[in-house]
Design a protein that fits this description.
With about 200 residues, the protein is mainly α. The protein folds into two domains: about 100 residues, no CATH class; about 70 residues. The chain has ten helices and no strands. The N and C termini lie far apart (about 35 Å).
């Protein structure tokens, strides 16, 4: 196993395949690892097989809810820029929930979806909050199950949307997205150096 995938202390010890199945998620890459393989072993094999998009999909499924949403928010910031002046209502509500995961903040994230413009890709962050506990949202919505893996697939979608905006830098930027998730999985902020993004903005 590669050193890159060690000490992912925030992640579950359950097999990667079990977590993916529970979220109705699948990888495109054929794995040699057994169904009982832990997350770090599967990530290592995916890296060896040069399957970065599958690595993103797996990471979106295995990150805990708050960490997953934060990862999505960082990708959204790559698109719209840092600073409070650039935050859309959906992104601001998602970030607020990460820092204070109350039902009130979750409800605000859900409410932001009602008036978000169609072209606002940051709604993926708010959707990831909405489905964070596996239900359709807070309050009465909590009585109804959400789509399996709803939170993870929307966080994945946010990262893929950001990646799509940087296709000319795909090889470098996809590694930034992966390394962010790994840093968050170790308990970090995910705010790693991204010189390639600064270059892209010039």
């Amino acid at each position: 196993m590669q050193e890159r995938f060690k000490n992912l202390t925030k992640l579950s010890s359950e097999p990667a395949a079990k977590i993916l199945a529970a979220q109705n998620a699948r990888l495109e890459t054929q794995l040699a690892a057994p169904a009982s393989a832990p997350i770090d072993e599967v990530l290592s094999e995916l890296a060896e097989k040069d399957a970065p998009v599958d690595m993103l999909r797996l990471l979106s499924a295995v990150l805990p809810p708050r960490e997953r949403v934060w990862w999505a928010c960082l990708a959204a910031r790559d698109i719209i820029g840092s600073g409070p002046e650039n935050a859309t209502p959906s992104l601001k509500a998602a970030e607020d929930w990460v820092f204070k995961p109350t039902e009130e903040n979750r409800a605000a994230a859900v409410a932001s979806l009602d008036y978000a413009p169609v072209e606002d890709d940051t709604v993926h962050c708010a959707l990831s909050v909405m489905y964070a506990d596996g239900t359709l949202g807070p309050g009465e919505l909590a009585q109804h199950p959400g789509p399996p893996g709803g939170s993870s697939v929307t966080a994945f979608a946010m990262n893929i949307e950001a990646l799509g905006r940087k296709m000319e830098l795909f090889d470098d930027y996809v590694e930034v997205l992966i390394d962010r998730a790994l840093d968050i999985a170790r308990g970090g902020s995910g705010k790693i150096d991204v010189p390639v993004m600064e270059e892209a903005e010039e």
